């Protein structure tokens, strides 16, 4: 009985996966989209000197506050903020182009 339920769930998930890929097949980020101008601006900021400067400042300030408080959490927060600045535009692009992170 468990095997039957497991196979049924697998078949349902396969059907959903196949149907969603067809639904998002036409979604592409084109130059005529209103979002592309904003995306290009944010991408330029985060991958340019501003993004590198902010990420470096987050890392250094998080490390300094972590040493002052004798706690790893500020340093981890700085690393998380720097990671969001670095990979955030790519995640936004993958969501807008493919409709998900899958």
Number of strands: 0
Helix share bin: over 70%
Strand content is under 5%
Figure out the total of helices.
4
User: Largest sheet, if any?
Assistant: none
Order of helices and strands: HHHH
Average pLDDT works out at 74
Give a brief outline of the structure:
The chain is an all-alpha fold. It contains four helices and no strands.
Structure description:
The structure is a single chain. This protein has one domain (31-102). The chain has 4 helices and no strands. The chain has helices at residues 2-23, 35-47, 49-69, 73-98.
For the structure shown, list the relevant keywords.
single chain; flat; 80% helix; 102 residues; mainly alpha
Give the helix/strand layout.
Elements: H1 2-23, H2 35-47, H3 49-69, H4 73-98
């Amino acid at each position: 009985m468990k095997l039957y339920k497991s196979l049924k769930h697998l078949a349902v998930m396969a059907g959903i996966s196949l149907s969603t890929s067809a639904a998002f097949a036409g979604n592409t980020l084109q130059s005529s989209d209103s979002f592309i101008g904003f995306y290009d601006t944010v991408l330029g900021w985060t991958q340019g000197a501003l993004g590198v400067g902010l990420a470096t400042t987050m890392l250094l300030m998080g490390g300094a506050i972590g040493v002052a408080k004798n706690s790893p959490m500020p340093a981890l927060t700085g690393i998380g903020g720097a990671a969001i600045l670095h990979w955030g535009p790519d995640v936004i692009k993958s969501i807008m182009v493919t409709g998900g992170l899958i």
